[in-house]
Design brief:
The chain has helices spanning 5-16, 22-38, 45-57, 60-71, 82-85, 108-120, 159-167; strands at residues 91-95, 101-102, 134-136, 144-145, 152-156. By secondary structure, it is mainly α. Helix 2 packs across helix 3. It comes from Escherichia coli.
């Protein structure tokens, strides 16, 4: 699996405590609690949750991730200075709804193909991937959108690529 800069940043923000999306936090904790209790590394869910919260809060989770990166010949200061090592999109642009309303459906395939069209995925095995492009801050189903709350933020290589994706 290839990981874009945008996904990496979210993961690092989670590990360092800079930002933890509540929905991602809940899912991650549920999965990790299950792993710790199944592996007999915690006697029950409460102990597992406490252990997990502790390693997130004291920085141990981020530290171990940094050691893993270094062990794979990555930079030893990756966690602290990831912006120095990850490519950045040339254009970042918020996209707003034409009218006020609520997000009632999403064409996730079209969103995925839009990322591919920007270079963030492969059409053929020989294609290279631009790890800097994609979408962030996407509105979720049921969210209210208007001229103040964007549907998403596009990270693109060029203004042309960003405009094409905005139309979709």
């Amino acid at each position: 699996m290839q990981v874009t800069r945008l996904k990496f940043v979210k993961r690092l923000q989670f590990l360092t405590g800079e930002y933890r999306n509540p929905r991602l936090f809940d899912v991650t904790m549920a999965l990790c609690v299950e792993m710790l209790t199944s592996g007999k590394l915690a006697k029950d869910d409460a102990e597992a949750r406490a252990k997990l919260q502790a390693v997130l809060d004291n920085g141990k989770a981020a530290e171990v991730f940094g050691r893993m990166v270094a062990a794979q010949k990555g930079p030893t200061d990756f966690v602290e200075n990831y912006a120095k090592y990850l490519p950045t999109a040339m254009l970042t642009k918020a996209v707003y709804a034409d009218t006020e309303g609520f997000v009632s459906e999403m064409d996730t395939r079209a969103l995925g193909m839009a990322v591919v069209a920007m270079g963030g995925g492969r059409r053929q095995a020989s294609d290279t991937i631009d790890y800097s492009v994609g979408f962030t801050d996407m509105a979720r189903l049921g969210d209210q959108v208007d001229g103040q709350r964007p549907l998403a933020v596009i990270h693109a290589k060029t203004k042309t690529a960003g405009r094409k994706r905005r139309k979709r």
